[in-house]
Amino acid sequence: MKFAWIDLRTVPAEQREAVVDAAVHARVDGIVDGDIDTLATLPVTVKRILAGAEPPAEGAPDGLIVLREVAGAGGLDRLRTRHQACEPDVAGLVDVVDDPTLTLACETAVALPYTVVQFKDPTKIPLEIVIAAADRSPGQLVCRADDLEEAKVIVDVLEKGSEGVLLAPRDANDVFRLVELLREGTPDLELTTLTVESIEHLGLGDRVCIDTCTHFEKDEGMLIGSYAHGFVLCVSETHPLPYMPTRPFRVNAGALHSYVFGQDNRTNYLSELKAGSAVLAVGADGRTRRIVVGRIKLESRPLLGIRAVSPEGVEVNLIVQDDWHVRVLGPGAAVLNVTELKRGDLVLGHVATDKRHVGWPVGEFCVEK
Length: 369
Prior knowledge:
The protein is α/β, with parallel strands linked by helices. 20% of the residues lie in helices and 39% in strands. The strands form 4 sheets. It has an 8-stranded parallel beta barrel, surrounded by 5 helices. Strands 9-16-15-10-11-20 form a 6-stranded antiparallel β-barrel. Strands 18-19 form a two-stranded antiparallel ribbon. Helix 1 (13-25) runs parallel beside helix 7, helix 3 (72-85) packs parallel to helix 4 (99-111) and helix 4 (99-111) runs parallel beside helix 5. The longest helix has 14 residues, at 72-85.
């Protein structure tokens, strides 16, 4: 999980107490302030970061981190010396306004335990450069965000973003929203081995290709099924095909009515997807990640029905385009052409116990067959 630093310095006085309470309750990683007395009252569960001031010679809180502005190469040298000599948790702030300060930010991120960067221009290319420079450094990079919208962009820069986000919240709600944003992720799914029971040529129907904004790995695809309780792992077109180039962004998913398994244990009909929709890429080992749909392609094609069963006896159905180049994944990420499947073959899938209403799991009586 990414971590959050909350900056109290510009929080309105009437909101400070609520913001501090929210930050402690939400277990943010650190709180930044220019008032050491405020920091001294914080519990040891949160890092205390002093900014814009020097700590007293005596009586400073244990574990205090002092955030100092890095003024040129000489300033970085002084902070590096502090870190090596007596201060284990030195933090440097770099205001990136041009190429020299961008270089300074990269050097600081490599040299110090904590580096806070803020950028004059809205482009995120400088942040990409600092992230890349700091990639193998043990230090942690924190990027200042003006608001929650910018915080979300920062998190996704170069897929990994900075380790931390610094935000001056307007109120306590901003604290909780930031922490929730940083917690966003997609948990692994438990995949199971399904045994093919039958294959049936069904004739003409409408099928959907999901073209995404993401390059799939060779063992990735999407979970697709006719029933809300069972899905088959349809592989992406990352693997070579005769007569046509690969489409590493595409999953030839299935018939128009099918469910695709998505985030938060929710499903969507393939017919509902459009440019900008969020879907879930799933690996053969059960790992998942959120990806974005670039478009869907709905075309009439011959269809093939695949009926399989889980070890517990749950029946799973998948209807796909009846063509050799449409593939699913088997155990060990084996790539299987659907037209060559036969009774007894093994494919990877996911079995869910939930019934569905408009994609959300519900505890009600429902039969699908």
